[in-house]
């Protein structure tokens, strides 16, 4: 009989082996999820020379800002770019960075209470240097006429002495002091602006001044436009909502920046459905004036309104009850209500018969225009410089200012118009015309007028088309 060898008993019970397998599996999983410190150090210590997404975004933003700055120099002067707080912090940090690159260059901004001495101290210069600088040139004293917000640029020598001082007085003018062998030399630099033309279109929704400002015209340009069309349009009572205007005017540009405006070159104003045109023309003698697009003079013997943008408070009437005397008395003129001090203009060229007090009219100016016409301006606060009895005035010249002198209940101008000694309603009086373009210059005028009119048509068409998109 053969005997089978007996099997060796297991070293560990089956339950123990299962538990050990489970523990091993958990340990493996833990090592995968929670790597040891050695493994983690190897994973994070690798350094790559690559741009992070944030760095790339910053570079893209810098490129975008640079492109915006380039575009801003060529865009419409009325486009405005506002700085964000981050832009402001970067702008404030820039001078410090520049100083780090060039320790000899310092910039300071004039603050309230600053003097030239305090500004010198801010850049580390002794106060005695101020006296030395001002004593070298009489014109150097211009540096003491400081304005809040003005920037002064200092150039220092390696040993901390002043070598150059520079500041801009305006967009077109700057002054500087440079140290030489004989002391500081003063220098003034004036930049001559480049003239270019610009176009603007506006629709009147409220007042002319507000609508013009919204369209991009400055206050002075708006006044110029009113003056150009003032012979045909009474801006005190004729303006209506929906009236439109187009203007081509001169812009003064220096270093890519609009620094001012010049003359209106051409304009078009649609008032109550009727369109008026104006073109500036300088004849061969050098005299400039405005004409309609076909060559008729815009200038007439009288302007319709002696006060710009005033409100008519009382009209011409032969049976008005006087507000102070409380009885019926003919009101042989037109009253224009406006704030005290508003300028009053002469309606036409003429001789001043009176510039003084006259009864209930208070301070009064009376002007004789040739043999036929006479105008009166009453209740003035005062007279403009140079306006006196016996003198002469030009059309549009300021002769006085709105007031309440005489029998007046509030600040206004009382304006009268006489023809051969008879009072007439100045609002209804047909004004005499001036001469048109001379025949000898008509062809030259049309060579200027036609392209300007065509450009206004083209600009408006383009503007309206872009607005519909």
TrEMBL record:
Obligatory cofactor(s): Zn(2+)
For bias type Low complexity, the affected ranges are: 54-74
Where is it located? Answer: Cell envelope
**Which intervals of the chain are annotated as region Disordered?**
49-105
Q: Name one GO biological process term.
A: proteolysis
- InterPro entries found in the cross-reference section: Cell_wall_metabolism_enzyme (IPR050570), Csd3_N2 (IPR045834), Dup_hybrid_motif (IPR011055), LysM_Opacity-associatedA (IPR007340), M23ase_b-sheet_dom (IPR016047)
Gene Ontology cellular-component terms listed: cell envelope
Q: Does the keyword Protease apply?
A: yes
Ranges for the Csd3-like second N-terminal domain? 198-317
> What keywords is this UniProt entry annotated with?
Hydrolase, Metal-binding, Metalloprotease, Protease, Zinc
Q: Note the superkingdom of the native organism.
A: Bacteria
The GO terms describing molecular function are:
metal ion binding; metalloendopeptidase activity; peptidoglycan binding
Checking Pfam families in the record gives: Csd3_N2, LysM_OapA, Peptidase_M23
Opacity-associated protein A LysM-like domain residues are 106-167
- Where's the M23ase beta-sheet core domain? 330-426
Q: What is the name attached to this protein's record?
A: Murein DD-endopeptidase MepM and murein hydrolase activator NlpD, contain LysM domain
């Amino acid at each position: 009989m053969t005997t089978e060898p007996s099997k060796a008993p297991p070293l560990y019970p089956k339950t123990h082996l299962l538990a050990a397998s489970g523990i091993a599996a958990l340990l493996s999983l833990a090592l995968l999820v929670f790597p040891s410190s050695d493994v983690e150090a190897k994973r994070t210590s690798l350094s790559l020379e690559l741009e992070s997404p944030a760095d790339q975004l910053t570079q893209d933003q810098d490129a975008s800002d640079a492109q915006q700055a380039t575009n801003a120099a060529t865009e419409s002067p009325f486009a405005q770019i506002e700085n964000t707080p981050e832009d402001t912090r970067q702008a404030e940090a820039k001078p410090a960075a520049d100083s780090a690159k060039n320790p000899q260059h310092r910039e300071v901004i004039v603050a309230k209470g600053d003097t030239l001495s305090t500004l010198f101290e801010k850049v580390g210069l002794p106060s005695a240097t101020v006296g030395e600088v001002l004593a070298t040139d009489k014109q150097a004293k211009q540096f003491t006429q400081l304005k809040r917000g003005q920037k002064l640029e200092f150039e220092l020598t390696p040993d901390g002495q002043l070598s150059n001082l520079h500041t801009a007085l305006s967009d077109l003018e700057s002054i500087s002091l440079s140290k030489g062998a004989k002391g500081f030399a003063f220098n003034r630099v004036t930049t001559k602006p480049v003239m270019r033309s610009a176009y603007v279109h506006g629709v009147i929704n409220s007042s002319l001044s507000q609508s013009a400002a919204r369209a991009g015209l400055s206050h002075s340009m708006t006044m110029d436009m009113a003056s150009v069309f003032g012979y045909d349009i009474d801006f005190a009572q004729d303006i209506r909502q929906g009236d439109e205007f187009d203007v081509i005017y001169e812009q003064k540009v220096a270093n890519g920046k609009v620094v001012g405006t010049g003359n209106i070159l051409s304009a078009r104003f649609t008032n109550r459905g009727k369109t008026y045109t104006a073109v500036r023309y300088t004849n061969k003698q050098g005299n400039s004036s405005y004409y309609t697009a076909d060559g008729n003079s815009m200038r007439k013997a009288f302007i319709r309104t002696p006060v710009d943008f005033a409100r008519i408070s009382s009209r011409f009437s032969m049976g008005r009850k006087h507000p102070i005397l409380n009885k019926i008395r003919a009101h042989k003129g037109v009253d224009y209500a406006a704030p005290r001090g508003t300028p009053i203009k002469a309606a036409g060229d003429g001789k001043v018969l009176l510039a003084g007090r006259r009864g209930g009219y208070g301070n009064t100016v009376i002007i004789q225009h040739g043999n036929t016409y006479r105008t009166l301006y009453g209740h003035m606060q005062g007279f403009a410089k140079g306006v006196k009895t016996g003198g002469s005035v030009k059309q549009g010249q300021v002769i006085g200012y709105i007031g309440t002198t005489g029998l007046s209940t509030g600040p206004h101008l009382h304006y009268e118009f006489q023809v051969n000694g008879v009072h007439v309603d100045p609002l209804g009086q047909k004004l005499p015309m001036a001469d048109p373009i001379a025949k000898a210059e008509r062809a030259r005028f049309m060579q200027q007028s036609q392209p300007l009119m065509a450009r206004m048509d083209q600009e408006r068409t383009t503007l309206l088309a872009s607005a519909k998109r």
